[in-house]
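Aim 2 progress update. The chain analyzed this quarter is reproduced below.
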Amino acid sequence: MRIAVDIQALQTESSRDRGIGQYTLYLLKALLEGDSNNEYLLIANGRLSPPRIDILDSGRFNLANLPYPNDNRQISEVLTKSYLLAAKVDIFHIASPFELFAGSVIPNLD
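Predicted structure tokens:
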């Protein structure tokens, strides 16, 4: 399976060292250690600073920096949906649907 994980909680100052950021980091570490059967895509916000996490060097995760435009949720949703469809993602996990600070964009994927 191809599984995508939104990692914006690791990119914002308000979350990366707090609960949801730590949850996201430990989730990725657990996936790295316990699952060698699936492919993982990490979805990052290209407008924010890259996450400072060592697991990106593992080679197990593919990082996609999506170029979300400022304050345009509709375009961000289209970009995200298009990327997920083109990448043939089976599951998309958004760790924090409430990541509303520092330019993060959580698209509505109904």
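The helical segments are 19-34, 73-86. The mean pLDDT is 83. These observations will guide the mutagenesis experiments scheduled for the next reporting period.
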